[in-house]
Every structure is written in C-alpha cells, then in structure tokens.
C-alpha cells in the first residue's frame, strides 16, 4: 500500500486524564502544537496533529482518591472535558482516540517486542512503602525532597530541576494521600530499561538535534548525559494501569511512562484513519522508511520522559523507528505567580476562559505570553488590556480605513514593485518565527501586533491601496494559524491566504471584519461588522 507523501507528525504531550485542560496547558504545548500544525498545512504538508489521554498515570489514581471516585470514572469524565477544551480551542486534532483493546494491544505488543529483543533487565530495587495504606510508592503516590536540587518533588521527575528520581531516591519521602502514614522500604524485583546501555545512540542523537532545542531543555540533557544514566522502571507493583505482560513480574503493572511512546504511535495510526489515510500496521507511519517529520511539544518538566525515555523506547526497539526531528519545550505558565495545577485546584479552566473571551483574542494573548524561555504569568485583566491595545484597536482602525476606501469590493489592483518588496518583508519577518530551528509562536504574535500598528498608521488612499492590501493579505496568511476564526471568514469570502515565495503582483479589493472586544463573545463576519 502506498501511503503517499511523508507526514508531519505533530505530538503535544499526552494529557493526563485527571481533570480538564486549564489555561496553563493551552499556553504550554497545546496551542503551540496547533499553530505549528496549521502553518505546516498552509505550506501544503500532510499533517497528523495527534495525541491521546494518559489514563494509566498515577495522578489519575491519586486525584480519584481525593474526589472519592474510581480512577476509571475520573478518566472517562476527564477525557470528555479534555476533548471539549480542544474543540473550544479550535485545535486541529481529529479527536481523542479511544483507550480500547487496539490501544492496549499496541502498547503490549510494543513492549513485548522490546522484551524479546533483550532491551529490559530484571533488577531488585528498593521502593518506599506506606505501611498503613499497603501501597508501594512511585510517581504521584510519593512526595519528598529532590536529591538533585532539594526542591519539593513528586516521584518520577522533579518539576523544578527536571532530573529523574526513581525507586528510593527521593529524600524524606511521604505518602501524599496520608502524610502521617509510616514509610518503610521494601525490595522488589522489577524489569527496568537501562538507559546507560543506549548512551552511544543517545549521544549521537543529541549531538545532531539539541543544538536546535531551547536552552533550558538543552542544558538539562547536557546535565543528564554528564552522569550515569538511570535505570527506568518498566514494571511497578500497583493496582492501576495496564497489567505487565512479562512472566518475570507477575501481578505488576506497566510503568505509565513506558506506555507513552507506543500510545503516541497508536494515536498517530488512529488519527491518520480519521483523515482518510489508514495503514495496515499501527506503527507504519513511525517507521524510518516512511521518513516522517516528527515534532514534539511538551513542558520542561517532561524533558526527561519525552526527551530521553521516549527516545530510548524507540532506539531500543527491534523495529526501525524514526526519531523526533524537532522538539519544542515550554516553561511553566503561572497563575498569580504560582504554577497552574489540576491536583491543587489552582487553575483557570480552558473552556471557561474560551466561553468568556472570543477565541481569536484568547489564542492571540496566550500565544503572545506563552512561556517559551522563562515562566510567564496569566491574569484576565492583562489579557483584556494587551489584546485591546495590541490587537483589537489597530486591527479595527485598519478595518475602518479599508471600509472608507472608495474602491469597490472585487476590484483587481496591481501591486507596485515597492509594494511587493514590502509584502515580502512582512512575510520574512513573520516566517522566520515559524522556522523549525527557532519556532516561536510568541514571536509570530508580537510581529503581527507590530505590523498591525504600522499598517493602521499608514495613510490609506486609492493611490497606495494595492500596496497596503498586499501587505495586509500577507500578514493575514501568516496570522491564520493563530487568528483562526477571522481568517476563516476572510478565506471563505475569497481572500487568498497563501504561504509561498511567489510575489504578490496583484490583489483583489477586500475589507476586514472588525474584531470584538475581549468581553464581547460574538463571531466576526466578512461584512465589516460583528453580527
């Protein structure tokens, strides 16, 4: 079967189904991934923008315990809420794939093949154990002090410094669901994935790819590679998650982070089928001979898992899988100068915000203030101020000037050489922020605002109308991955919003719809007013 052109596989981090998406999630990987996917589609690429819920995570079980519901019930409810948030955002994912028998078979077949190939080793390790609860502690089931940076941390990896901490490595451990429960240590025989065995392959990959990563993520990988690489659990004692299929570890569960890589492969297959591009094998599009461009979006706190463990899951598999081409990380987005957190109920719901604020305006602000290189802070008051001054006002001034222009709609106007040069400059200034080696949606949003302000100040008349319209049309094409609703309206009215290298030699007269205020949730129309 011929699958056609190589796909661009865009993978934002799999959302944990312990609650709905909050604004910090949107400003982190999910909006950035959608902007990237839309831009690549505008360039004519076949894009699979895909993710799936991470139902086996221990955070589902701990959150369910706090809420007094079963983990399965919480996962079902959270998945529906996550899906509604993606829809409200306008994300181009074709849906959230079901965590069904095909999903489970894909995951178990993947790890079983690794096991047969000798990728895993049996180890006896020490786990902290909550005596009263009778629970072996890992990831969300344990908290304590990070041995690397001394910050408060959960198990698995430290949010502050990004370093992993498995087994008995956390200092001062306690059981978050009952901090008074006495902790003891028990030896358990489990399977592990020894990352040190993959050092040469990891070194080669990072030498080729991390120079294009954002600095904090690149520095963390350098720190991790400077020391001994850890053994990562493949199985854990527990009662939530997929049963491990290995004879050596009866009754144990598959470690949830081991699921993530085959889960994404399954999600890609499912999404391709929704878009009319089915494959016989679930992993077909991830094979190296398909030459996919694979792009990851995730937070700094997941650099170890997405940037190292998932890579190791591909490198240690007997099938020849492609590896990620581009990795885009983000820092934490804060609410009132503290990290958004579902488990602590410190959040603004994504759907609630998008109910109150027109989608294009919310997308613009979250893109502009995204924590690409350092933590940034969200307040709704700042959203309304920034969007009003940097987007709505200059846009509507420009719309008013075009509305007053005495040129009939549909008139074809020749663009001067100077106008073509300026349109190319607009394209260059915006396009540079979409490049894989410097991808910055915040840079795109800032440039949109700067160009709007400049064009709104331009004295528009019949003499320069064509040159100004050529620049506006170019600006709209590059703004379309962010301002999805107003540009969809314009495209539907016949305004060509293409991204290519051809000069804009002529334009057809068009008007801009006005944008609503941030407090006015009404859709824009192509008639130059809101309906």
Mind explaining what this structure looks like?
Helices cover 41% and strands 15% of the residues. It has 15 helices and 20 strands. The chain has 2 domains: 8-353, HUPs (Rossmann fold, 3-Layer(aba) Sandwich); 379-508. It is of the alpha+beta class and 531 residues long.
Features:
4-stranded antiparallel sheet, 531 residues, Rossmann fold, alpha+beta, 15% strand, single chain, 4-stranded parallel sheet, disordered C terminus
Quick overview of this protein structure:
By secondary structure, this protein is α+β, with helices and mostly antiparallel strands.
Question: What topology does this entry show?
Answer:
Elements: E1 8-12, H1 23-42, E2 47-49, H2 58-67, H3 71-89, H4 101-116, E3 121-130, E4 135-136, E5 143-145, E6 152-154, E7 156-157, E8 164-165, E9 171-174, E10 183-194, H5 199-209, H6 215-226, E11 231-233, E12 235-236, E13 253-254, H7 256-274, E14 293-299, H8 303-315, E15 326-330, E16 333-335, E17 338-339, H9 350-356, H10 359-368, E18 376-378, H11 380-403, E19 412-414, H12 417-431, H13 441-457, H14 465-479, H15 484-492, E20 506-508
Helix pairs in contact: 2-3, 3-9, 4-7, 7-8, 10-11, 10-13, 11-13, 12-13, 12-14, 13-14
Task: Choose one word for the global shape.
Answer: elongated
* Helicity range: 40-55%
* CATH class placement of the largest domain: Alpha Beta
Strand order, sheet with most strands: 2-1-14-15
Q: What would you report as the Rg, rounded to the nearest angstrom?
A: 25 Å
Number of helices: 15
Beta-strand percentage?
5-15%
First and last CA, distance: 48 Å
Poorly predicted segments: 521-531
Per CATH, the architecture of the largest domain is 3-Layer(aba) Sandwich
Largest sheet geometry: 4 strands, parallel
| CATH homology group of the largest domain | HUPs
How many domains in all? 2
**Quaternary structure state of the chains depicted:** single chain
The CATH topology of the largest domain comes to Rossmann fold
Mean residue pLDDT: 94
